[in-house]
C-alpha cells in the first residue's frame, strides 16, 4: 500500500478530487501541488471535462506544464483541445523544448504553426530547431535547456549562476564547458563544484575528455552510450563540435522502451498494431499483410510433403511426428533470432565476432537437438518398440534444431547487412522458414532409411 504521510495514496487523491469538484480553490491548490507530478496526472485524468476546466483556472500555465508533460500523446491531444490558445501557448513556453517538439510531431503542420506563432520567440525558435532534425536522431530527442559555462569562470560564479538558472534547466548535474565559438571543450559536475574552492577556476577542475554524440547519431546509439558510461546526460554537438543540446537519461529510457516495443512488434509480425487504442479493424489491417505473406510461404510446406508422398504412403507413422519436428525447429529458430537481434542491439556481436556468434548458436542448437533426439528416440523405442523409427525421428530432430539455430541467427544478421532493421526477420517468418527446412531434413532422413523400415 502506497502512503502519503499518514494517509493512503487513494485517500489523499480522493480529497484532492473532492476539493476540485466542490470548487474549493485554496484547498485544491494546497493538496494538489503537494502531490508528485505523476500523482497529479492521475488525479487530473479522473476528472470530468467540466471539472478539468476548473483546474485550468486554479493552476497557472507554468504549473500545468509539468503535468501536461506526464500525459501520453493521445491524452495530450485531447487536453490541448480543451485549452484556450493563450493558456496553451504559455504552457508550452514553460515546457522543455524536446517535450514540446515530441508533441508537435504528432500534430498537423498547420496547427503547429499557429501555436508557434503564439509562443515566445526564444522558446519557439528552440522548438523549430528540434523539429528540423530527422526523427530518431540525437538532435530530435535532445533538450535545449542546459547550462554551458566557460573555462575562465570561477567556481563561485558558476554556483551563483546555477542558483539563478538552475530551475529552468532540465539537469544541472553535468556542466559543459564551451569556448568563445560555442565549441565543447570540457565537462565538470556539481560534485566537482561543491568540493572545490570558490576561487578555483573551471579550467582547473574540468575534464577535457568529453564523450559526446553528433546531432545525426541514431537515438539507439545514444541510449547505448549513456547506458555504457552510466551517464545522466550526454552532450550533442554539430560536425564542427559546437554544443547544441543534451540528451538526458529520462529521454533514453523512453528511447529504450520505444525500441523494445518496435522490436517486439517486428519479431511477432505485429508492428504498429500493439497499441490498445487501435480498433480491431485497424489492428487487423496492420497485421494481415504478414499473415497473408506467411500463408503463401506455408504452401512450400505442402509442396515438400507432396514431394515425399511415397515415403509417407510407405510408413504412415512418419506423419504423426511432423508437427513435433516443425514446432521444435520453429521454437529453436525463434530463440536464436532473439539472441542475434539482441547481440546487434547491444553491440556484443562486434565483440564476439560474426562466425563465433553463428558457431555458438549452431553448437547450442545441435546440443539441444542431441538431447531432444536421444529423449524422443528412447521414448519411441520403448512405447512403439521400433528402434529404427526412433532413430530416424531422433536424428531428424538433432539435424533440424542445429540447422534452425543457424537460420535463426544468420537471417537477422544478413538483413542487418542490408541496412534494414534485423527485427523484421520476425518470429513467424523464421518459424515458417524452419518448418520448410525441418521437413526437408526429416523426409530426406526417412527416405534414406526407407528400405529398412
Count of individual helical segments:
23
Low-confidence stretches: none
CATH C-level class of the largest domain is: Mainly Alpha
Major pleated sheet = 3 strands, mixed
Query: At the fourth CATH level, what is the homologous superfamily of the largest domain?
Result: SLC41 divalent cation transporters, integral membrane domain
CATH topology of the largest domain: Tetracycline Repressor, domain 2
**Number of distinct beta strands:** 8
Number of domains: 3
> Biggest sheet, strands in spatial order?
3-4-5
> What is the CATH architecture descriptor of the largest domain?
Orthogonal Bundle
End-to-end Cα distance, whole Å, is: 66 Å
Give the integer mean of the pLDDT values. Answer: 84
Instruction: Tell me, briefly, the overall form.
Output: elongated
**Can you give the helix content as a percent range?**
55-70%
Given helix and strand content, the structural type is mainly alpha
β-strand amount: 5-15%
Q: If you compute it from the alpha carbons, what radius of gyration comes out, rounded to the nearest whole angstrom? A: 30 Å
